[in-house]
Amino acid sequence: MMKNIKRVTLTAISIVVSIIVVTIFVHIYYVDNTTAQTERLFQIQGAIGDKYIQMNLPIAVLNNIANQRESLAEMEIARQKNLLEAQERNVHLIRDNINEMKVLAAQGRGILNDLEKSKVLRFLILENELKLGLEQLMLRFDEYEVRFSEYSSLDTEELSSFIIATEELYQDTSSIIAGLESGSRELERRFRRGYISFVNTALALLFIFILILVALIIRILKIDANYVFESLKKLNDHCYTEDGLPKLTPYFEEEKKLKQFVENRYAEQAVLEEIKEIASKEYILDDVLEKTFWKIKDFLDVDRIGVAFVDYGRKRIIAETGKINYGDIHLGPGFEVAFHETSLTKMLLTKKAVALQNLSEELNKRPHSPSLRLMVKEGIRSNMIIPLISGDTVFGFLFFSSFHLNAYDEKDLILAVKIAREMSTIIDKTYLTKSMLHNITLTFADLVEKKDLETGNHINRMTSYCRIIAEGLQTNGDQDYCTYPKFIHELEMYAPLHDIGKIGVPDCVLTKPGKLTEDEWTVMKQHTSIGAEILTKLEDSLRIFKKDFFKVAIDVSHYHHEKWDGSGYPKGLKGKEIPLAARIAAIADVFDALSSKRPYKRAFSFQESLEIIEEGAGKHFDPILVEAFMTCLPQIKEVYENKRDFEEELMVHSGN
After folding, report:
1. The whole model's pTM is what?
2. Which residues have CB under 8 Å from 156's CB, separation 6+?
């Protein structure tokens, strides 16, 4: 199991501090106390020895007195008195010495009892031997005292017995006192030796653990710090390989994490550099997302990457493209959401990236959010949103999504922002290209509208009708008719170009108020081929991007006058041979033409226009599309009514 520097350091420091604290505690509470008690024991042993030696003289005096007691009767009374007083004085002196030695022995035993309670130092002392000697000494003194306690004065015979007993006591206690002396010296020696051993052990442990700390510091400064310094230096030099780095063999967990961090950092920076290179060399955002998706799989829990752009004019956010890790997608390219229907609008102001860890909870908070509902339906649970900023304006968003809850942390969000920064080149180009194409589309449509007799908002209305019909097909189960947000978005963007070819029709034909001759009609019908040719050449000029930018535009422009029964022009296609976008545009174009006034005809009513469309089902128009058209009549009627309001307002202003 790999060790932890922090844990090892804290353990070593704790042990060092513990050793110091224990040593101080032992010294203060045990050593000082034991030293004082031992010194007192030495003093008691010395005092007993002194008292023992002091008994020599009284015993000798009593022996002398005993010899003189035999001729006591022959002595003078004064001398007899002095002799008896000397006898009594020396007897009391012996007894006093014995009593004092007994008291000292009791004190010594008390000290030994106290020392015995000192568990830490118990192994250092000879309390049993010393205690036994003191107890033997006290026992002898007690026996001696019991034997002579009843005698207040001694006759000759008693004195002789007292002297004999005292001399025996003196001889018997001689070895005991000698044992006490040697035991005390051994106690002192062992105590000092034990204390020195204890201190030496403590110092050795301190030295060992201080060495461990020093070794850690040296390793950190010499190996780890050098590794970090060189790693940062290589990062600063944009070199993302470990070649040339100091060798770091992880021994601790922190070193393993450090090495892993550096490796991940290098790999992350290398990937960011690769993404930057891809973004600078590629022209198509889809290709960049595809390659980026697989590049970042090792760093982020990502199942989907998406890009959406902001349309400030229409106050909508539009899904542009994305890379997914699954098949069932509901929120795809072309999906639009109004500013008031999404929380992304707030990010247009804050410009800060966010990570949503539980989209189901977010949907509960905002149940009317169409984008959240679709993402949850796809299985997305976590989502990172990074604003794409140009100057001081958010022009779009980059999304990183995962099937898992709580998939992203602050580190992931920072990495996502870095990835977005590296992809900014291609995203900027895509947004610029998209804006340019949209403006080109509107410019072409405007030119045609100004050249043609069709006045007012025909292009806008026709485009709205196309979008309504296409949206009505989204629930169609037939794969040939099932439309997707991307298709709807492209149809709405390129439907205005359906008559772009009229720019090549002579004005005399295009603006003729009456019915066209057969030759003029032949010229007029050429506008479909002219429009397709213009758009095809424009697309060919962009072939370097390897993308069919104008496929829907070409289909609508070229084939919107084809008929379901094959009687249309320019190719005479019929049925599903006609592209779906062109079939939708045909209904939208004819309906608006029928319901609008022209120099050569009156405007049919809404109901009359509907009846003509219905009559054309299966002949002019795809019957399924006509059915979808009729299903969406409320939305169709709304666009139609807006047209009437516009025309009435125009008449009022013209009258003024």
Report:
1. 0.55
2. 66, 69, 70, 72
Q: How far is it, in rounded angstroms, from Cα 625 to Cα 218? A: 80
Alpha-helical runs (H) found in 388-484: 410-422, 424-451, 458-472
Listed in sequence order, the residues at least 6 apart from 443 whose beta carbon sits closer than 8 Å to its beta carbon are none
Name the DSSP letter for residue 560. T
Give the ranges where 118-155 is alpha helix by DSSP (H): 127-148
pLDDT < 70 regions, the chain: 1-2, 29-30, 72, 118-129, 149-154, 188, 191, 194-195, 235, 237-244, 246, 283, 326-328, 433-434, 437-438, 441, 449-456, 541-549, 599-600, 643-656
Q: Which residues does 580 contact at the CB level (< 8 Å), separation at least 6?
A: 480, 481, 483, 487
* pLDDT tens digits for range 156-188: 777 788 888 888 878 877 887 787 777 777 776
- Residue for token pair 């009892």: 113
Provide the token pair at 410. Answer: 């602050």
Contact 172, 55 (CB under 8 A): no
Using an 8 Å Cβ cutoff, are 141 and 98 in contact? yes
List pLDDT tens digits, range 250-301: 777 777 777 777 777 777 888 888 888 887 777 677 777 888 888 888 888 9
**CA-to-CA separations, 145 to 51, 57, 171, 612, in angstroms, rounded:** 16, 20, 16, 149
Strand-pair partners of 598: 601
- Outline where 325-409 has alpha helix (H): 344-350, 359-365, 370-378
- Burial (CB count <10 Å: 0-12, 13-18, 19+), residue 63: middle
Q: CA-CA distance, 575 to 563, in Å (whole number)?
A: 8
